[in-house]
Amino acid sequence: VRRRREILAQLPSMFVDPMEKLLGFCGAQLGLDIPLLGVKAFPFGTCTVVTPPSEGPDMEVDIISNSGDNSQPMAPVVITVGGIRVQSGYMKDKQMAARPVLHMSASVDLRCATVYEAKQLFERLQQLMKEPALLDKYISPPTEAKLRRAPGSSSSSS
């Protein structure tokens, strides 16, 4: 992706959009792998998380695909995270109470996963959102980076 951006930055601005569409079409539709131009064949394996600005409660967000004709998404999983709102509801003891609610929506390209796999993904995501302490076993504490020595240098000073 970085290589593609470097190439597109050197083009006149009127050619950037058509060239981006052409490169996207070559990778996503034709399955061509051209590393020199930053094109990957069928570039699946990514997840896009979108956080729209909180303008209003009924705002819609359109996810724009990077592929040539917008028929095949570049990211097979798209998660949109909205704002936190206070919503009233019943608690376990049947009492009415206000609580914060985070609105999220997600979509999965079913060419990359089955409905069952998507359901498992979103159930796990929902579980982690309800119980953030479960994330602790996946997040390791920061460690001190080891210094790398240049080839040919010695560890002792003379």
Give an overview in words.
With 158 residues, the chain is an alpha+beta fold. Among the domains are: 1-41, no CATH class; 44-78 and 105-138, no CATH class. It has helices at residues 2-9, 13-28, 115-130, and strands at residues 47-50, 77-90, 96-108. Strands 1-2-3 form a three-stranded mixed beta sheet, with no helix packed on it. The chain is elongated, with a radius of gyration of 23 Å. Mean pLDDT is 74; it is low at 67-72.
Task: Give structural attributes.
alpha+beta
Short account of what is shown:
The protein starts with a helix and ends in a 28-residue tail after the last helix. The chain is α+β, with helices and mostly antiparallel strands and 158 residues long.
Structural class: alpha+beta
Q: Give me the side-by-side strand order of the main sheet.
A: 1-2-3
Oligomer: single chain
Strand element count = 3
Bin the strand percentage.
15-25%
How far apart lie the N and C ends? 45 Å
Low-confidence stretches: 67-72
Q: How confident is the prediction overall: mean pLDDT? A: 74
User: What percent of the residues sit in helical stretches (DSSP H or I)?
Assistant: 25-40%
Name the shape in a single word.
elongated
Largest sheet: 3 strands, mixed
H/I helix tally: 3
Q: How much is the radius of gyration in Å? A: 23 Å
Instruction: Give the SSE order as H and E letters.
Output: HHEEEH
Secondary structure layout plus pairing:
Elements: H1 2-9, H2 13-28, E1 47-50, E2 77-90, E3 96-108, H3 115-130
Parallel strand pairs: 1-2
Antiparallel strand pairs: 2-3
